[in-house]
Amino acid sequence: MNEIFIQAANRVNNPAIEEWKAQGKKVIGLVCSHVPEEVITAAGMFSYRLRGIETDSTSIGDTYFGPFICSCPKAILENAGRGRYNFLDGAIMVQACDSMRRLDECWRKAGEDYANIVPSFFHYMGVPHKVTDYAIAWFAQEIEKFALALTEHFGAPSITPDSLAAAISLHNESRRLLMDLEALRNAGDPPLSGEEAMTIILAGTAMPKSVYNPMLAETIRQLSGKSAGHAGKKRILLAGSVVDDLGMFRAIEAEGAIVVADTVCFGSRAYDGLVAEDDPSYTTLARRYLNEQFCPRMFGYYEKRLEVLKQKIETAKIDGVILQNIRFCDLHGSENGLFERDLEALGIPCIRVEREYGPLGDEGRVRMRVSAFLERLSCPPPPGTGVLKRGFSTGRPPPAAREVIRHARSIEGIQLRLEPVEPVLRSVQDGRRHTKGVRPDARTHPEFSGRHRAGHGHGRARAALPERHGQVPGGGGHGP
Amino acid sequence: MGKYLEEVVTAHEKGKKLCMTTFCQSPAIFWAMDVVPLLMEPMTVAGSLVRKGGANEFMDYCVEAGFTETSCSSQRGALGAYLAGLAEKPDFVVIDTPGICDTNANSFSFAAAYMKLPFYQLNYPPTLKDERAEKYHRDDYRNMIAFIEDQTGNKLDTARLAEVMTEMEKQDLLICEIQDLQRLVPSPVPVIYNFFIYGLRFTMGGRKEVTDMLEAMLAEAQKKAQEGKGAIFSGPEKARALFIYIDHYAINVPLWSLLDERGVTHLGGILDRFYQADAPYAGDDGYKISTDSLDAMIDSLAEANSRLPMVKQIRGPYDAPNMWLEEGLGLAKMYKADFCVYSGTPGCRNTWGMVKLMAADMEKAGYPTLVINADAFDDRVESWEQTRHRIEEFLEVRRLV
Q: Yes or no: is domain A3-156 CATH 3.40.220.10?
């Protein structure tokens, strides 16, 4: 692995930034994949995606943000407060999600207490939550405002159609190369692990594209046709909240799986979808950045995202999907619930994991859950059930619950704490529940709280509510 | 509320469509289009106020259905019942919070995906009054009307809309008068009236029943004002509280009882500020209803909608022009508040993202500010007794009563 990629992926600062700054050029930080980086590049600057890595606490973040907030912006603020982002010349705050957009105020307020941590250019940009002609027009104007503010602040030459076209071309080249890398990951015998792939992808968010692209092209050339001994491992798609910590990949792959695809921010979300090159304009940028994002902040596009997910599952021959969300990330957390329901109904095994952002403090817990999930993936499907099979539903009716349970009981070493058969059977017959009766992983782990054992969370939609109280031993949770 | 609930449960019987929507969405357009607005938050509040255990089991059901437990409880309560199929199934979903509140918008987009319902969002840019924002409001609102027409198969009836908006205009004036009287010391407006104002406006705004009730409320407040009396039942007014966010909805409305017991006037909060042009606090941020033409009506509805509680105040940086801090400081001064209270839910990602900063700014301006960590809709997070204790401790430690 290229050492520059490793440094760029693992460190807040890296040699590529230092080299860029040594040339007297500007670095602009951004917090969301909805920021059109082409504008920054066209202005002769380098767009750097802000991360909360290398933090060992969120004491500064906790001072300004409230307690019920995602740890990602808190960790970014921590880095800013500790001066680790002092190399930034500017930062752009975005109406991304509610936690992230409040980084704007919290960073500014922290700047009253910590000297010189707020870059001289600090810009707030709105991003619509829908795709309509007037939303695209509004966003195009917002991008133009940003472009003007940026060039005026730094006295940079105005952005011209030519400079914008060149920037679009450069970023598209990067996207195409990353798509090539994804194709390598998707192969039956991937030449690199998920962690290595993510290292390469993350590096691209922390290096000027003009420096990154040639290195990426060379890396892909070297990887093509190689084998790294990953064939036969369980193939995982990672979905959900932002993941920019290689520790997450390490934790999954340490259990014997390989992450061959993702839909996460910093991952494929950043490079899926090219900007049209035949009309280099702010409207073209607005169209791509509203249309091609896999983020649930775009309300009402669940079906579209589900289709993208299904396509990736099929292309990468996925065995199981890990749907993770950072605590308090309700957008991804809730959509994960829908994905779980709809993918499980297609026979695609899923697991939902809630976690914290940052140094993987809960690595042990994540590994335990992943391990249990992989154990589930390793169970041979009961004959004729279609459960745990790879790919999509055969259209056969859901399995009879008794058969599923009998089969699960026969697997050596698994201790089941099953719910009474009848309710399971009833909900299976209702078509609402597919493989849920055989989730020994979730049932037997000591980390699971009593609440989960009682049947809460993780997408277990049961039949009608009144029945629930009658059917779950121990009261079914903490209702009145 | 009874009348409203009757409308909800009989909508389909009467051949009307049922639209799942949110509190910060003016219901007038739905009534005008013969659609019954099905509001999640007032339903949750109704459960919390009158039912032992509140809406808790429905909140839990949402989690079982895949919705996060950290989401806003104001929707989760009623939503659980709908996800479980225990209530009349809505026909479509229209919301008003993308750009304002993720957790609110997410609840409804989740519901639409879960129940496979048609979905429309009114989306807001982070500014309020510039030309671009106003054009966006108008375009988006017209698009919403087209969506409702598609869903109902009915064209918007201009005469019916004018009728509803005329009623809404009357109600606006009555609310403005009541809120003007709140400025008097002692306040002649009973502590519970702020709750009535927003409860009525959210559910039945534009309906004649609301006008009648507001008229009765205004008459009562005017009588007290003419007599030079305050409206605290327990005795003289000792302090004046501005709730910069929402109230607390445990069983039997204990928040308002506590305030009255302790001689504290409730000066209202974010939920009862609608920014009518005549509102004493509106300055030049207010909207004016016009029934001159269909376009004028739609424009003024779009303008009113974009100034609804939360929709106005927390769409941009809290300290930007026209936003939350400006409102908090303005209202505290105008209504002679002695202190401020932030009450909300842990699910409110937006305000918890900056409420510490807001509270610090209010304190700096001389207004003691209490931030309550409870959940206004779920007393399992913190019991009302604990919350009450915290409020009383605050009143005593800061020597407010």
A: no
